[in-house]
Amino acid sequence: MSEEKINNIGYLGVDVGSVSTNLVILDIDNKVVASVYRRTQGQPIQAVQRGLEELKDKLEADINILGVGTTGSARYLTGVIVGADTVKNEITAHAVAASHVAPNVRTVLEIGGQDSKIILLNDGVVVDFAMNTVCAAGTGSFLDHQSARLGIPIDQFGGHALKAKEGAQIAGRCSVFAESDMVHKQQVGYALEEIIFGLCQALVRNYLNNLAKGKDILNPIVFQGGVAANSGMKRAFEEGLNMEIIIPDHFNVMGAIGSALLAKETMMLDDRPTNFKGFDASLIDYKTSSFGCNGCENSCEIIKIQVEDEVLAKWGGRCGKWEVDQIHAQHVYKV
Amino acid sequence: MTQLGAEVVVSNPTSKKTVNTGTVFADNELCLPVKVFYGHLMDLKERVDAIFVPRIVSVVKKEYTCPKFLGLPDMSRALEDDMPEIIDTTINMQEGWRQYMKSVLELGSRFSSSRMKVMGAYKNGVTALRDYHHHMLSGKTPIELLEKKNFSAQKPRLKVGIAGHPYNIYDQYISMNLIKRLKGMGVDVVTAEMIPDSVIELENSRLPKKLFWTYEKEVVGTVYHWANNKSVDGIIYVLSFACGPDSLVQVLLEHELRKNNNVPMMPLVIDEHSAEAGLITRVEAFVDMIGRKKESLVC
C-alpha cells in the first residue's frame, strides 16, 4: 500500500446517547482525524445524519472508511442508519477508549446525559463495572436543568464552581431534593459559586456512594463523558477521592472513539468489506414508526425503520417474532 | 389433585397484564414477586372454584421460607371481597414429618375420602417432583423442561451462573428472557437447581452463622460453590427490588467474592419499572467483560 493510501483510511465510531450524538474518525494509528459532538435533541436519526455531514465537512481529504462501530442507547437504530460492522454497548466502548488513551488506567468515571458508570480495569481488561439503576440523579441532564434555572450557560458552570472557597451543603440523594436545597441556600444568601460547587460535591457524593460503593478506586483515574467538561466536577472528584483525575483530550467523544476501536478490532478479525453506507447515508429518508402488537397480553410496542416501502429493521417485541433479523454485534446490515 | 379427580387450572405465564394487575392490587412497599403473584391470583379468580395457596412456613427443619410466603394465603383472601376459596394447607417442617403428612392427608381429603387414593396420588406427585429435580441436576433449566425444548448455546464460549430465586430467574417475563438471551449470545447458563443439595449445605457450613432463610441459603451456597471451584466465568445475581433478604445476601456475596477476587458477579435488580434496554446493556457489557477477560483481549 502506498503512503498516501495508508493516510486515507480510517474507522468511524458513532455514539448516540440521550443527550449527545458523537462521531469520530480514527486513522490507522488510532489518532482522531475528525470528531463531532452535537446534541441529540430527541431525534437520533437526524442527529446522526447531520453529524455525518458535519464530519464530512471537517475532513480535509477523502477518507476510505474500513469499518464502522455504533454504541450508546440508540446503537441498534444507528447501526441500521450508518451500516455498522459492530454494535456494542457503551460500557465496553468507554472502557476500550479509556485504556487506549491511558493504557494503564485502573478506574474510569463516566458521566453522561442520563447515565453514569464506573469501570474498573486491570491490565487493560475490565474487571468490574456498575451503572446507575433506576435513578438519574447526578447526571448531565440534571446539571443542564440547573444551569438553565440559574441562567448560567452550562459551559461556564465549572468556572463558577472553581471560584468557590467551599461548597454549600446540598443533598445529592435525589435531584428533586437537591433542587429545593439549592433554592433554599439561594434564599438564605449563599454566594452562587458556593451553591454551584456544592452541587458538584453533592453529585460526586451521590456517585461515590451509589456506583462506587465497595469498589476499590485505584490510580490512574480517567474521568470522561460530557460532564467531564465541568471543571467543578473534576475538582469535586479530586477533593472527594483525594486523588488525581485525568481528563482525556477527547473526553466528550470517548464512546465514539471506543466504538471506532471496536470496529477496527472486528474488521481485523473478520476480513470482510465494511457495511458502511457512506456519508451519503445522511441523504436517505429514513422513516420510523411504531405499532402495538396484539399477539399476546404483553402488548409490546414494535419499532419499524423503513426507507420508502422497504422495511430495514423492526424490534421491540419480547418474543422476537417481529425482528426482521436478529440484531447482533456481528450482524451484517444491508440496505 | 388431577389423580384425585380435581380439574387443575394453572395461571397463565406472567405478562405485562399480570404485572400491571398485580401492581394495582399490591401495597407499594411489596416486592415484585408478590405483585406478580397477585396478578396470577387475579388471572385465576374468575375461572376456578378454589385457589391453592399453601402456607409454606418451613421446608427444612430449623429454617424458614421468606416471611411474605407465610402470609400469602391471608393476603390472597384480603385481596378482594369476592375471592374464591383459598386452600391454605400449611407446610411447616418445624413441626416434623408427622404433621406434614397430616397436612397432606387433610388436603387430599377434600378430593377423596379414601386415604389409600390420597397416598397414591401423593406418592406419584413426589415421584414426578423427583424426576423434575433429577432433570435439572443434569443441566436442564425448568424453561427447557416445561417447553420441552432444548435451546443450548451453540458452541458456548463462556459459562455464566445465574443466581437468584427460581420465581425470578425462570419467569421469562420478569427476567426479560435472561437465560434465552445469554444462550443466544453463545453463553452456557448454569443455575442453583443444577447443584446437589449436599454441595449447597457444605458451602453454607463455611458461614459463621447459619442462614435461616432456606431460599437465601440456596443462593449463598450456589454462589460460594461457583466462586470456589471457579466453574463459571461470571455470575449474574438476579434480585428483586424491595426484597429484604436478597439485599442482605447481596452484601454477603460481594464480601465473599472480593475475598476470592476471581469470579466477577453482577447484581441485576429487577422491579416492575425495569426497562429492557437497561438490562440488555448491562448483560451485554457483562458478557463482553468476561469474554475479553477470558481471551485476555486487552481493550
Order of strands in the sheet with most strands of chain B: 6-5-7-8
What is the second-level CATH architecture of the largest domain in chain B?
3-Layer(aba) Sandwich
CATH class of the largest domain in chain B: Alpha Beta
Share in β-strands of chain A: 15-25%
Brief sketch in words of this structure:
The complex is a heterodimer of chains A (335) and B (299). Chain A has 335 residues and is an alpha/beta fold.
What does this structure look like?
The complex is a heterodimer of chains A (335) and B (299). Chain A contains 10 helices and 13 strands. In chain A, helix 3 (75-82) links the parallel strand 4 and strand 5. Chain A has 335 residues and is an alpha/beta fold. Chain A has helices at residues 3-7, 44-58, 75-82, 90-101, 140-150, 154-163, 175-187, 192-210, 231-241, 254-270, and strands at residues 9-16, 20-27, 32-39, 64-71, 86-87, 107-111, 116-122, 125-131, 221-224, 245-246, 286-292, 301-307, 310-315. In chain A, helix 6 (154-163) crosses helix 9 (231-241) and helix 8 packs across helix 9. Chain A is 36% helix and 24% strand. The radius of gyration of chain A is 21 Å and the shape is globular. In chain A, the strands form 3 sheets. Chain A has a 5-stranded mixed sheet with strand order 3-2-1-4-5. Chain A has a 5-stranded mixed sheet with strand order 8-7-6-9-10. Chain A has 3 domains: 3-96 and 255-282, Nucleotidyltransferase, domain 5, CATH 3.30.420; 103-247, 2-Layer Sandwich (Nucleotidyltransferase, domain 5); 286-315, no CATH class. Chain B has 299 residues and is α/β, with parallel strands linked by helices. Chain B contains 12 helices and 8 strands. Chain B folds into 2 domains: 16-136, no CATH class; 141-294, 3-Layer(aba) Sandwich (Rossmann fold), CATH 3.40.50. Chain B is globular and about 65 Å long. At the A-B interface, helix 4 and strand 8 of A face helix 1 and helix 12 of B.
